[in-house]
Amino acid sequence: MALPSPARRSRAVAWAAGTGVTLAVGLFVVVWTVVAALRAEDGSEPAARTVIGWALVAASCGALHFRHRRPVAVAVVTLLACVAYYPVSEQDGPLMVTFAVALYTTAAEGRFAASVALAAGTLLAVGLGEVRQAPGNRQIDDTSLVMLAGWLISLVAVGRAQHTRGAYLHEAEQRALAAEREQEARARQSATEERLRIAREVHDVLGHSLSLINVQAGAVLHRLSKNPAPDVALPAAREALEAVRATSKDALRELRATLGVLRQADEAAPTAPASGLDRLGELVERARATGLDAGVRTEGTPRPLPPPLDLAAYRIVQESLTNVTRHARARTVLITLTWTDDELGLRVEDDGGGSPGEPAPGSGIQGMAERARAFGGDLTARNTTDGFRVTARLPLTPARTTAPPTMPEGDQE
Asked: What tens-digit pLDDT sequence spans the chain (413 residues)?
């Protein structure tokens, strides 16, 4: 069974509260009027007056049920009922209470000007009526008139204060709901960014390693297809299988470290990355196992890097070597690290066929560029006269070394 919505529950509570107040006020007025009639010493009033009086009581008390939807109209109805009731009925019942409740509700619902006008009009009408009476026929003395004025002013003031408090609470509730929605949106955004970051890491690990395994397996199959002598075929196959095993073992290790973040739901995330430039030699060895003549050249003095920046530099080189192995049909590739006081330069050059025309910014290159821009650097990838070149610049300023934003990456240039 579906539960009622908060809005429906709020309306139901308001309706019940309004009905309860209406019944309580009506019961109070009826009981007081009946008791006053029973205590009367001058006999019963004419039947016509009695019927008119009770009709006015019923109309005034019943109108209170609609005071929140039509506060000004209900206040006017109750006031007119009181104006007609007291001259007609011989019982001075407390019908004025209905007008007091209606006047308070008018101010509490934000109709401040209307409530002030009704209170002032009532006070002026009562005062003018008493002034026109003969000295011995007044129904309300000066003290009672002042007390009536005080009651009317108090009702309007308390209603106004209630309206202000209600508006403040509503605004506070809306701010709390907005803050809660914003917090939920940020949590969803953080979760999405974390999933994309992990997807990018998995892509970098598997894309690079599986590309090398594919090239290594294809090379040995090509050699074996020529039916070489066993003393030549077996060493070649053994060498290729050893390279495949080493590559797959390293891929599994990095994949396990990356996916370990998902398993640590209740633990602090690891602060050190799984890879860095200190493992650049392993990347080069795996590239050489595919038949590439890969080399590394260092210019300047290397230095330790913050873990996020170290991982970003490693992933840029890894993705570049993956593209060379998979697409470039190159024979040689040179990785150049240029260290200065302010930045680290990365350059990966190959002598392959490059990209037809201007290289389109595929998701792989786009991912590398995002990693560089996350640290205040930049990355370019373009054809050269001898092949293809990827150049990246990574500033070494500590303030820039923050975790990069995430984006999904594909598997090609």
From this structure: 444 555 566 566 666 666 788 888 888 888 888 887 777 655 567 778 888 888 888 888 888 888 888 899 999 999 998 888 888 877 777 888 899 999 999 998 888 899 899 888 888 888 787 777 666 666 677 787 788 888 889 889 998 898 898 888 888 888 988 888 888 888 888 777 777 776 776 777 666 677 777 777 777 777 677 766 777 677 777 777 777 777 777 777 777 666 665 555 444 544 444 578 888 888 888 888 777 889 999 999 998 888 889 988 988 998 888 888 877 778 899 999 999 989 999 999 998 877 665 554 556 788 788 888 888 899 999 888 888 999 999 998 754 444 444 443 434 33
**What is the C-alpha separation between 413 and 411, in angstroms, rounded?**
7
Question: What's the 3-state SS for the chain?
Answer: CCCCCHHHHHHHHHHHHHHHHHHHHHHHHHHHHHHHHHCCCCCCCCHHHHHHHHHHHHHHHHHHHHCCCCHHHHHHHHHHHHHHHHHHCCCCCCCHHHHHHHHHHHHHCCCHHHHHHHHHHHHHHHHHHHHCCCCCCCCCCHHHHHHHHHHHHHHHHHHHHHHHHHHHHHHHHHHHHHHHHHHHHHHHHHHHHHHHHHHHHHHHHHHHHHHHHHHHHHHHHHHHCCCCCHHHHHHHHHHHHHHHHHHHHHHHHHHHHHHHHHHCCCCCCCCCCCCCHHHHHHHHHHHHHCCCEEEEEEECCCCCCCHHHHHHHHHHHHHHHHHHHHHHCCCEEEEEEEECCCEEEEEEEECCCCCCCCCCCCHHHHHHHHHHHHCCCEEEEEECCCCEEEEEEEECCHHHCCCCCCCCCCCCC
pTM, two decimals, is 0.46
List the beta strands (DSSP E) in 213-311.
293-299
